Amino acid sequence: MLKIAKILDKTISGVIRKFKTTPYGSDAVYMEQYHGGGDDYNPPEQIKALSSNVGSNPRDGVLFLFRDNIERKSEPGEKRFYSTDTSGIKVAAEIHLKNNGDVVIVPTGKILTSGTWEHNGELKVSGTVTGAVIVAENGASGTYSNSVTTESGIVTGGA
After folding, report:
1. Residue 87, class by beta-carbon neighbours within 10 Å (0-12 exposed, 13-18 middle, 19+ buried)?
2. Cα(55)–Cα(73) distance, rounded to whole angstroms?
3. pLDDT digits (tens, 9 = 90+) for 35-66
4. Sheet order of strands, 103-107 included
5. pLDDT tens figures, 74-92
6. Over the chain, what is the mean pLDDT?
7. At a CB cut-off of 8 Å and minimum separation 6, what does 152 contact?
8. What is the Cα–Cα distance from 26 to 20, expressed in whole angstroms?
9. Rg of the chain taking only CA atoms, in angstroms
10. What is the DSSP string of the chain?
């Protein structure tokens, strides 16, 4: 039988995350988190989740399908992933796969990447591009903030 449980406390030991919970209608018990492969979700305390037992042993409690208090924005056919602050009240970062084909990435901090980033198509930047070395290849043209001007990937003026 499924029960709604409130998370009170949690511990992590290697690959296992255990929660002290209070399933509605029972005393506090410890349950192990189960989720889809490749997921690592560490829910804030004081949110609700579905819980159950594996077989009939109450010591084999599992917790899954968490519910937070974040406003739902996805339209039909959309998928939205997000993280919250430690209180579980505010969205900290989100990736929204829109039903029109757009992918919207909204951080409240930085977007950090490593490896090689390849892009085909237009890249429109509203703001600045900075780096230790910026290479203007394949016909890049424009004037940069330090007054260097390029034409077709070649510096044509400035210092």
Report:
1. exposed
2. 37
3. 888 888 898 877 889 999 888 887 889 999 98
4. 79-84, 91-97, 103-107
5. 999 999 999 999 888 899 9
6. 86
7. 139, 140, 141
8. 12
9. 24
10. --EEEEEEEEEEETTEEEEEEEETTS--EEEEE---TT----PPTT-EEEEEESTT-TTSEEEEEEE--PPP-PPTT-EEEEEE-TTSSSEEEEEEE-TTS-EEEEESS-----S-----S----SS----S-----TT--EE-TTS-EEETTEEEE--
CB 153 within 8 A of CB 138: yes
**pLDDT tens for residues 94-132?**
999 999 999 999 999 999 999 998 999 988 888 877 777
Would the pLDDT of 146 be above 70? no
User: Percent of the chain beyond pLDDT 90?
Assistant: 40
Distance separating alpha carbons of residues 50 and 1, to the nearest angstrom? 10
Please report how many Cα atoms fall inside a 13 Å half-sphere around the Cα of residue 100, on the Cβ side.
Answer: 2
Q: Which two structure tokens, joined as six digits, stand for 100?
A: 């029109």
Token pair 């690959």 in the structure block, residue: 15
pLDDT at residue number 77:
97
Residues 48 and 31 sit within 8 Å (Cβ to Cβ): no
